[in-house]
Structures are given as C-alpha cells and as structure tokens.
C-alpha cells in the first residue's frame, strides 16, 4: 500500500511539473509573440517594398532585373548590413537598460546611435558614387555594371533613411512598443505598391521610378516613428535631445562595430554570392535566378529575424533584471517555435518548386534555373530558422565580438571558398548556393 501511495505521489508530482512547464512555455510564448507578431508584420512589410520593386523591375526585362538586383542586393545590401548590425548594439543597451528600469538612458543611447551611424553612412557614400567601376572590378559585365551603377546613385536617399530608422526601431522595440512599428510599416508598403504602379507601369519611368518610390517608402517610417518616439508618446524614455549623447561615444562605437561586424559578415555573404554569380556563364540568367531565390529566402527570413529581435529583447531584459535562467528558457522557446515555421516553409518550397519564381519573372529560362535551386532553397530556409535566434542570444548578452569570429570562419573561410570551388572547378554554376548556417548552429 505504501508503494502504491508513493507511485501516486510521483505521478501527481510529474503531472504538476508538466502543467508547470506548459504554463511557463505559454507565458514565455505570450511575451515572445508580443514582440514577434508585430515584428513579423513590420519586417514583411519593409522587406516587401524591396520585393515589390524587383517584381516591377523584373517585368521590364532580364537586364533591368539583373541591374536593380545587383544595385539593391550588393551595393545597398552591403551598406544595409553594416548599418543594421551597428544599430543592433541598441538591442543590448536599450534592452538591458529597460530591464534595469533606467528608462531615460534609452533615449540617450538612441541619439548616440544616430551620431555613430550618420558618420558611418558618410564614409560609405563612395560605394554608391563609384558603384559602376567597383562592379566592373568584381567581374560584372559592362552592361549590367553601368545600369546598376546608375541605379545605385538613385538609392542614396534610402541609404540615409537607414541611419535614423534602425535606431528608432530598436528604441521602440526594447519598450515592447512594437505595434506602432508594424502599422507604420504596413502603411509604407501599401503606399509603395500604389506609387510603384503609378510611376513604373503608369508613367513608364522605369528603373528611375522604381528607385524613387523605394526611397520615399523608406523615409515614411522614419518620419512616423520619430514623431511617435519624440513627440510625447514615450515620456519616460525620451526626455529630449541631450548633450549626454556625445559622451561615451568611443565605448558605444566599439560595441556598435562589434555588432556591425557580427551581422554584416553574415549579410555580406549573400551579396558576395550574387557577385560571384555575375561572373558565371550566361550571367543575366544566373544572377536573376539566384536573386529570386535569395529574395524569397530573405523575405521568409523576416520570421526568424523577428524571433531574433524578440530573443535579443527577452534575453537582455532578463539579464538586466538578473534572471539568467529566464534568459535561457526564453531562448529554448524561441528556437523551437522558429524551427516549426522553418519546416513549414521548407515543405512549401519543395511542393511549389516550379512555380515560386513566377511572381518575379515570366522568362522561361529564368524560371527553369530557379526551380533547380528549390531543394537548396528549402534546406537553407530550414537552417536559417535556428541560426538567427542564436545570434539574438548573443546580441542580448553582449557577445557580438565572439559571434563575429564565428561568422568569419563559417562564411568566409569555408563558405565562399567552397562556392568558388564548386562554381568554377566543378562547373556547378549557380548551384554554388550552399548555406553555412549549419556550421554556425553546430
């Protein structure tokens, strides 16, 4: 009888533990989705503006699609990656400050980030101005390089929108004010669709119209979020412009640089693949096919990137409050949830392997080339559902410099050399698209 009683007690304890675990997962999921839901909506909308531009450009012709793909993916993408990475320092600083209830420091940190990013943006301007000779040096055809270089100059206003937008997003995100970011992003996307149709299809302004509608669309959220953050809706965290923003700039620059290197090395890897593809035979078709797959991957990547942002905030908040176990549990829940989404989209790509490129082009040769990449695209999507969340842990913990070394090893000491080897030595062409996220996960 005593043994039966002990068994019942043990069963009850296990049931309580399971119930407790389910309740903890549910509570943590609610906290994550408070950030993830709006973040997915806003990131899909913001990246959707780039996709809409490529869709309209793709129906202008193969050369136009290749040119704007090179300009937006390589020139803008290189700078986007660095500025985005540098702004991610705010996820560490603002997240921990908010968790420690040092609310006024969030506004100070954001102003420091604006100063650092603006100086960096000025230093990066020559990449836009001299895009044509830079692209020719990398082996792009003269026709693609000339047109992509012209488009790159038209993208300069968008370049400076990044300077103000990225810190604003992280400032609001750290306070869980995510819905305002999402609604402004959705409004920008809808406005961009209308302007793109009017200027590109209606007025026949071609790539010039595409570039200027994209510039305008990226500045709309800057103005909207600045008005929300600095005009009375964040009274605790925004107390006005402060001289304190100019102090501690060197320490802030070091953390921003580590964050920039961590994320941009990963971001640049995909741009280098596009450049390498431009040196293959039948470059226009190869660039178009890989650009389509890269953009689909990047668009789906907005989901794990939303989990990346949420994980960074949750880990930073918990560490700021001195709760290391809470940070670990948030990581486990975030990785598991994101992986489920990755598996779903991987299956969808496999099922629609011959049709997913139709939204970008009607060219038969490009559609055939893109369909051959479906298996690798699906596998990449699945792996990328885990890796960004681990980067989010690094950002929330302030480990950016360590992850930068891991990125260098995985992407540049292994990934790019293997791509070159397969593309030229083994003549695998555009199938060099091998993702090294699995190495980072291990």
From TrEMBL:
One of its GO terms (cellular component) is membrane. Keywords: Membrane, Transmembrane, Transmembrane helix. One of its GO terms (biological process) is xenobiotic detoxification by transmembrane export across the plasma membrane. InterPro entries: MATE_euk, MATE_fam. Pfam families: MatE. The keyword Membrane applies. Coiled coil: none annotated. It is a multi-pass membrane protein. The keyword Transmembrane applies. Its main location: membrane. It is found in: Membrane. GO terms for molecular function: antiporter activity; transmembrane transporter activity; xenobiotic transmembrane transporter activity. The chain crosses the membrane at residues 40-60, 66-93, 114-135, 147-168, 180-200, 212-231, 329-352, 373-396, 402-426. PANTHER family: MULTIDRUG RESISTANCE PROTEIN. Belongs to the multi antimicrobial extrusion (MATE) (TC 2.A.66.1) family. NCBIfam families: matE. This is Protein DETOXIFICATION. It comes from Amborella trichopoda.
């Amino acid at each position: 009888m005593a043994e039966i009683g002990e068994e019942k007690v043990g069963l009850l304890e296990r049931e309580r533990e399971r119930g407790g675990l389910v309740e903890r997962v549910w509570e943590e999921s609610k906290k994550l989705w408070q950030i993830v839901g709006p973040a997915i909506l806003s990131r899909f909308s913001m990246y959707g503006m780039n996709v809409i531009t490529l869709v309209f450009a793709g129906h202008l012709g193969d050369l136009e699609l290749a040119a704007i793909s090179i300009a937006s993916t390589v020139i803008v993408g290189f700078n986007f990656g660095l500025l985005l990475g540098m702004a991610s320092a705010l996820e560490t600083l603002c997240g921990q400050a908010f968790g420690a209830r040092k609310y006024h420091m969030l506004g100070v940190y954001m102003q420091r980030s604006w100063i650092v990013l603006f100086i960096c943006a000025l230093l990066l301007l020559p990449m836009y101005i001299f895009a044509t000779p830079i692209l020719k040096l990398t082996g792009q055809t003269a026709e693609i390089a000339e047109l992509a270089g012209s488009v790159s100059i038209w993208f300069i206003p968008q370049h400076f929108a990044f300077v103000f937008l990225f810190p604003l997003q992280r400032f609001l995100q750290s306070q869980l004010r995510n819905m305002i970011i999402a609604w402004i992003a959705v409004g920008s996307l809808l406005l961009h669709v209308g302007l793109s149709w009017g200027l590109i299809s209606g007025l026949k302004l071609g790539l010039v119209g595409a570039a200027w509608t994209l510039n305008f669309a990226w500045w709309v959220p800057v103005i909207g979020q600045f008005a929300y953050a600095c005009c009375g809706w964040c009274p605790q965290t925004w107390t006005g412009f402060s001289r304190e923003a100019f102090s501690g700039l060197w320490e802030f620059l070091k953390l921003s640089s580590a964050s920039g290197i961590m994320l941009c090395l990963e971001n640049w890897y995909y741009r280098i693949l596009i450049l390498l593809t431009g040196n293959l035979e039948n470059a226009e078709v190869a660039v178009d096919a890989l650009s389509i797959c890269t953009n689909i991957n990047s668009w789906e990547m907005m989901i794990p990137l939303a989990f990346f942002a949420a994980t960074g905030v949750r880990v930073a908040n918990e560490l700021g409050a001195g709760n290391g176990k809470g940070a670990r549990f948030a990581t486990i829940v975030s990785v598991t949830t994101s992986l489920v989404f990755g598996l779903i989209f991987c299956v969808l790509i496999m099922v629609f392997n011959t049709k997913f490129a139709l939204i970008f082009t009607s060219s038969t040769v490009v559609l055939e080339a893109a369909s051959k990449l479906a298996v690798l695209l699906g596998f990449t999507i699945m792996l990328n559902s885990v890796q960004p969340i681990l980067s989010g842990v690094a950002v929330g913990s302030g480990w950016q410099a360590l992850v930068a070394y891991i990125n260098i090893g995985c992407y540049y000491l292994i990934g790019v050399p293997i791509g070159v080897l397969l593309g030229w030595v083994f003549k695998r062409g555009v199938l060099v698209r091998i993702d090294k996220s699995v190495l980072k996960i291990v």
